[in-house]
């Protein structure tokens, strides 16, 4: 009886061993051998192999190597619509590809997979300095002519700015506080904005000609300049008394009432004005009802400054009314009907 049990046990053991061996061989076999018709391991013939070092790249949001809409289009569409669309970005600037929130889209060129990446993580912490070198300190190109009134957009709102005369104001209401008529042609304001000392040193190339040729002219009451310094970060808030006293020493007393300081996070506000690079200076012409009609950045050369002066004069020029135009639907405009 014992021998029978022993023989049966050994036979069962051999059968189990054979079964496990068969299963192992089946699992270990390549997929193509088990399923000859499978296309799992077939590489597309139209997609060449790309070395690992060049498998990823950044790109503008709406440009895909596979000509497909980005999965992030809907997420950023509303935020992008807030930006002032008439501002001209330099073709070599990094800012033209930056998404709201300081993100860029990174695409794997081999698979086409997109990832939203923080700007500094992808471009490095010195991307802004590299951009200034490529664009000659001008990430924004100055407009060649004034932005048409039909396309002009309101200057973004920023509240709680400290004036050097100890007044707290909001913009853009501060620009048009003296324009009681609410006429777009009644006033033109040059708004000069900086976040760092390097940018602040570039602004006089715009402010000084504007002041000498327009503010100090016979029609100077129609023109004004407003300087704004953005101080972001908690340290700047703690050092606000020192920053205030230092700014008062560097700004002429007659300009204190038109010099504003802001402490706090202004990232969304800067994004609307396309002020992605904080190291340069930015200038905007704002009309009498707070609309952006011209923009520029960096230091102004002779041609750009002359163009800015011309645009500022056009903004305050009275609108010519056409009298006596024939109306096809009735009598001439301006004549009394008998």
UniProtKB/TrEMBL annotation:
Official protein name in the record: Uncharacterized protein
